[in-house]
């Protein structure tokens, strides 16, 4: 991690467009957590639960999280990055086809794939991407399990594999960087990649899969590490504030703190929690609403097929 406050220059993007391919990690939370309890609880190895693609346990409840980032760099060049690959191959095959991701992969129009973390709903659908582009450059958090590494190989990956080290930002393209953070999430997940972009004349945008490291910690990292990181323009993704819809005073304090960052756009996905977004709206935070289509169930989330423009 850089030691000089706000010292790291990552470049700038003229614009960034985020297409939400799928925010629906699953359709029913009780079903997922009952499956986990039956398997032995939150500390079990997720690979022992026979969910798709390793089995057919509640396959109709399995979906996934994935997004496509389309960026224009300062020189006018255009780049695409796939962020996560969802869970259920049947669901992800459908969503990739509906949004044209399959064709973009086949045509080599997506330059890299970034896996945020190893949780099933972000990672287990990787075969749906690799079958269209097995040689894509793949960024994973250093610390991915041996089962996860074997799964990548089994799904046919033959391209460059980059393990993002903890706390050391890596540039994907000028203006967009990935950082790996330690975490201790259920089902033995120990690290998570987060994306940071610097948008010309706007400020810093942060994109998370789940944000297990804590949304405020991740924002403060941007402030203390990146030049221009003290100006937070937008957040996109899962913010992991109330994923099980529980609430207490500490969560109220998180929302109060979010309100002090001067954020212009809050585009929330699944694990932020419906109750958290409702409270954001009540507090007057700048929530970007979705359209609740293509399998998404709630307009509070930026959902399947929705687009967030950052420019």
Mass-distribution shape: globular
Number of helices: 9
Find the CATH superfamily. Answer: Ribonuclease Z/Hydroxyacylglutathione hydrolase-like
* SSE string: EHEEHHEHHEHEEEEEHEHEHE
What portion of the residues fall into strands of 2 or more residues?
Answer: 25-35%
Structural class: alpha/beta
Describe the structure.
This protein has helices spanning 29-39, 89-99, 101-106, 120-123, 126-130, 146-154, 215-225, 249-258, 274-282; strands at 13-22, 66-73, 78-83, 112-114, 137-141, 161-164, 170-173, 176-185, 189-199, 203-208, 232-237, 265-268, 307-310. It is an alpha/beta fold and 311 residues long. It has a seven-stranded mixed β-sheet. Strands 7-8-9-10-11-12 form a six-stranded mixed β-sheet, with helices on one face. Residues 1-5 have low confidence and may be disordered.
């Amino acid at each position: 991690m850089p030691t000089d406050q706000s010292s790291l220059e990552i470049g700038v993007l003229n614009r960034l467009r985020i297409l939400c391919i799928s925010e629906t990690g699953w359709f029913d939370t009780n079903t997922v957590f009952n499956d986990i309890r039956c398997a032995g609880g939150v500390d079990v190895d997720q690979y022992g639960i026979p969910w798709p693609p390793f089995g057919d346990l509640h396959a109709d409840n399995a979906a996934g999280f994935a997004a496509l980032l389309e960026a224009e760099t300062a020189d006018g060049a255009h780049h695409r990055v796939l962020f996560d690959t969802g869970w259920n191959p049947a669901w992800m095959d459908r969503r990739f086809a509906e949004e044209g991701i399959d064709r973009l992969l086949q045509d080599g129009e997506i330059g890299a794939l970034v896996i945020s973390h190893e949780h099933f709903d972000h990672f287990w659908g990787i075969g749906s991407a690799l079958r269209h582009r097995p040689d894509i450059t793949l960024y994973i958090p250093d610390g991915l399990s041996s089962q996860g590494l074997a799964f990548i190989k089994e799904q046919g990956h033959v391209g460059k594999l980059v393990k993002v080290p903890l706390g050391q930002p890596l540039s994907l393209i000028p203006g967009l960087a990935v950082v790996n953070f330690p975490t201790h999430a259920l089902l033995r997940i120990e690290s998570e990649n987060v994306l940071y972009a610097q948008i010309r004349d706007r400020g810093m945008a942060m994109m998370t899969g789940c944000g297990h490291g804590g949304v405020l910690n991740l924002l403060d990292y941007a402030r203390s590490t990146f030049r221009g990181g003290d100006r937070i323009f937008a957040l996109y993704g899962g913010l992991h504030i109330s994923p099980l819809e529980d609430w207490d005073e500490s969560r109220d304090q998180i929302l109060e703190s979010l309100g002090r960052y001067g954020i212009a756009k809050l585009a929330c996905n699944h694990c932020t929690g419906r109750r958290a977004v409702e409270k954001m709206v009540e507090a007057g935070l700048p929530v970007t609403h979705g359209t609740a289509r293509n399998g998404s169930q709630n307009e509070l989330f930026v959902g399947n097929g929705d687009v967030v423009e950052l420019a």
